[in-house]
Records
---
Amino acid sequence: MHDRPVITRFAPSPTGHLHIGGARTALFCWAFARRHAGRFLLRIEDTDQARSSEDAARGILEDLAWLGIGWDDGPLWVDGPSDPNVCSGGQAVGSSRRPAQYGGDARGVGPYYQSQRRDIYEREFVRLLEAGLAYPAFETPEELGAMRKAAEAEKKTFIYRQRGDYDHAAALARVRRGEAHVLRLKMPGQAITVHDRVLGDVTFPAEELDDFVIRKADGFPTYHFAVVVDDELMGVTHVLRGQEHLNNTPRHIALQRALGFRTPFYAHMPLIFNLDATKMSKRDKDKAAKKAVRDAGIESVAGLVERLHSTGRQRERAVLQSLSDADLQVWLKDKQRQLGREQVGAVAAALGLKLPEIDVEDFRAAGYLPEVLCNFIALLGWNPGERNADGTDLERFDQAFLASRFDTDRIGKTNSKFDREKLLAFNADTIQHGLTDERFAGLWLGWAERFDEQLATWARADAARWQVASRAARPRTKTLSDAREAIGFALVPDDAVVFDDKAVGKVLHKGEPSGLVVLEGAGKVLASVDPWAPEAIDAALHAFATDRGLGMGKVAQPLRVAVTGGSVSPGLGETLALIGREGTLRRVERCLMECRGSVI
RNA sequence: GGCCCCGUCGUCUAGCCAGGUCCAGGACACCAGGUUUUCAUCCUGGUAACACGGGUUCGAAUCCCGUCGGGGUCACCA
């Protein structure tokens, strides 16, 4: 076993989007395989017929691909990320932006959907049954529930054991007659020790181990069974998974022994929680949205749509309108009731609410960069233990670094809390110091095309302007989604600029000469600036300021207020360039009129 | 409740396995200054932790035991 090539696997169940915790598990499995020149395998555990869906499976593949966590074996993925500028880590597809291709069945150990492997499981069930290592059990769920309750009444944990009068031949006969039944594994009655690479040896006493179900009444294998069989058949050597699985491991080992399989190496990773120590759950988003609607005192769909109107988002609008007032009421009153993902998103958009990010898709929509997200989650439970040249701890790294250093020996044992502030700082740092303007422009556009149609349209209308916008927004941007705020003034029609009273009072009406006087003079200078580009505009304005013996602030702020309505914007040259000469002059003119007309 | 895991600044962590160089280092956040045409960036400085109690030892954040605290798990879900 020690000389077998390393094979790790990530095995999500397709019941929803990829959770950030799952992403870390996948990343670690991927990194471990890379580090040991092995293979990383992806398997879809869809043995729960009721909850699994093909859509969810596809979504998970896409999330992984976006993160740059490519898999060697598994479902084929050739579409590639829909975002042409997406960063890819690890087995990078390179700067040529070819579509990524992951998966396939080079070793011939597929299929990788468990629902397609039922004949394989069946063979193994028969083996166990014939060897007397597994047996049919006929209790109904109701009966089991009663037994559990009875045990509880005695303050004991219910442990299922084979009945003393169990008769294998008779049981098999009942099965042949077609009686509903499950299959259970006969536990060996001895303590089982898990040799864990993170936690060390962990021993579970025999009394704690029950004869658990390995095949459900519907004929599907349980998770325990499928995972053990598939890991063996697919050659998995190292199982890295969350600590919540530790208690399952003795069962898996018992199963491996019964089936004559090898036991892989195990490494159970600590868990990730919210900052407030609650579990990171999809419900968090629904909760936040519900609270916001209640706090805003909104009771009808129309009330929500009205809020949305000002921001002009068509998609969210349609989503909201698909809701009825009755739906909304029921949702508001019932704590348990949850809205769909799209609906929650639309509600948040209407209220200008930032939803807590839980799934990979949430972080993507919020404008986090995939390589930053990977960097950050890698640090939750793992640390390279190296220093930078300046003596600080090395904590910023890319996937290539992870792939070259990652191992189980530096995985920590303690659970961690997900600090979004630090993630945000990482993201901001990468955007501001780790990207060129060109690359940022591409990433931002890719993001807009997926999440902000209005911005994307504006971007496509004028490529040169988009370059300026990117240059202006990048230094003030922490996530791709807030870059828009930095240049939002440019998307507003010239006559719709709203002048902030405070700003007007402070920079236009005060001073000697007053802001308005300076503004008028600056406007005249601007009329003849050529070319209309940031550098030329800045140069002209500096000359103007020097000429009048004014500090730059005295010139910049009145202009800023005149063209954006407020006192905050990117550099003045960029700000004016984005608005255009015509727009700038019109805005200055309009400001002069309005503010002189209403002298305070 | 049974079983299992864990316990260093508010948060992520380095240090622990091979006890002294640790009155505990870094990062994020926070606070105070500085640079700057606004904002952001950037620079400088600061506050802040070995859960508690016993051992072992010349010496313990590091080893042992106990207490307390947190988490996981107890399904025909994965």
---
Amino acid sequence: MDINELARRGGVSVATVSRALNGRPEVSPATRDRIRALADELGYAPNASARALASRRSGLVGLLWDTDYRSGGRQHPFLQEVLVGLKEAVNEHGQGLILLPIAPDDDPDGYVRLARQYTLDGVVLMGVDECTPSVAGLLSGALPCVALDLAVGGPRSASVSSDNVGGARAAVRHLVAQGHRRIATVTGPTDLKPAAERYAGFRRELARHHLPCPDSYVVAGDFYADSGAAAMRRLLALPEPPTAVFVAGDAMAIAAVQAAQQDGWSVPGDVAVVGFDDIDAAGLLRPGLTTVAQDYHRFGTTAVGLLAELAAAPPDRASRTVVLPTALVVRASSVRTPLEEEATP
Amino acid sequence: MDINELARRGGVSVATVSRALNGRPEVSPATRDRIRALADELGYAPNASARALASRRSGLVGLLWDTDYRSGGRQHPFLQEVLVGLKEAVNEHGQGLILLPIAPDDDPDGYVRLARQYTLDGVVLMGVDECTPSVAGLLSGALPCVALDLAVGGPRSASVSSDNVGGARAAVRHLVAQGHRRIATVTGPTDLKPAAERYAGFRRELARHHLPCPDSYVVAGDFYADSGAAAMRRLLALPEPPTAVFVAGDAMAIAAVQAAQQDGWSVPGDVAVVGFDDIDAAGLLRPGLTTVAQDYHRFGTTAVGLLAELAAAPPDRASRTVVLPTALVVRASSVRTPLEEEATP
DNA sequence: CTGTTAGCGCTTTCAC
DNA sequence: GTGAAAGCGCTAACAG
């Protein structure tokens, strides 16, 4: 069942069939509908390869996701939701999503070649280092690229990230509203953009409330659990320990809560904790972890929208960044009496 | 830079280039190497669409993953690792991985059409219901299909799953070794294969030790956290509560541990708990959750191997199932004195 | 509005 | 061992 067969049975030419199926304006509504009806009555599906070959567009979006990047996979607790959003959006656009293999780091056009090979419409990047020659090579080309949680520059690129600053500020604001004045933070590796921004938001909100932030109240972590536990212990060992801690990632935050509890402190009684990310475990713990949630699903849909935008726009536009709102999820780790929550807003 | 250009520069015909690049035996080793060297010197990448169109094989494996299936995504905590394994294996085979859109449930050849459209080499199914007409239609066709964690039958299908029975038995054996005699279980929905098998393994191992299993010691859950908490409360309210519980999924197990603690019981002091899956949170909790780990990465690699096997085999072979070993990860939730672990094996 | 036709870039007989 | 040539199934000029 190919386009010729369809044309024959429909009593029209293949050109007309093609036009009807692609919704071209030149075809009359009557024949368009007739052909379309016939097509799905016969279960016709256009061959994607033939279509791509002839039109020089595959309708495929490549996902560049470096699974080797740091400790191999578990560091993107949200990948799954991003992927779902991406997939749904891509399909809604009538496109397909293909997972790209990893190109050698040092080959500046490993990915460019892959993109050409599949005639990709665009590429979505996540969990990659934009400075790697292979990635930089891709970004500097004319192919639409959208990076997640990563600021990139390039003739046809954009990025989407969460409002890390705003999320951190909301966390601090919440802690201040709970009556805390001695608020510390455990940061992520501040060479990573999200970590740097969360830290900046933390400082800014603290300043807005004229609260001090001694150096000893800032402990660097690495987003992994162990560093969170260690950081919390260091904070609680201070002569004047904080009464609240904003931890820049949930894995660290959870470990921090448990380290505190293990050392005999009560959470939130002695020390309140707020995390960032809203990973699954945050809701499974007791006390539940108050945390800043990101809209992972929207990452995907936004990325696909940007890709389409980039494809249409002139090639040399300034790189755009879309910032997605975050939401504070209040659980027990930061609220003395959960029930008071609603009573005293 | 296409095959013609390459042929011209190499002073040979396109046919020879094609043969050289595809490692065909007819071409002389000398020209083969020469052409290949030239190809990657010039950064030539064969156009995937043209290749697929001419050869009727795309080198693409489709991933059928129903993101709508029950509560939308979070129920596959291990998807990410499976995906990484899948991707790596697929790429090693020189293939690509494409995420298939969801076809309407009631269309028996929605997926068949998709597969034809992309000229797929095969399809990997995960998190889908094999009874859905659309999925059943795909399975009954001649396209190689491999299902994960799902027993499927079809002229060219196979499945891969974890040794759920063995894992459950290992869990029970461990509890018995810890001195427990009153061992209960919280099951998953036993209409799902993994849940049924874990339950079967539980019973079998209990029987092997001549331990009783009263009906009240078997509580049905649904793999979600809430059901785990409820089940645990029911067990602990029994006149003679169990001293150990095997919970068929980590999300339930974690909630069970916390419910017990919240009600004033000590884990593992009063009741030991062993879960299944080894999700991230299992290691983040205190006490850490003893659990049965699956080799998710290997799911992917095994699936790809099976796909290749199916493509080569005669179309009507009996459907094969590969069972992957599981591993018990002992943490604090099942061991009275963690340090004794090594001392008293 | 519709049909004819020339490719898209590759693989694959079939000759040599 | 190599080359010539005929498609693979579709899109996109170009005519009409």
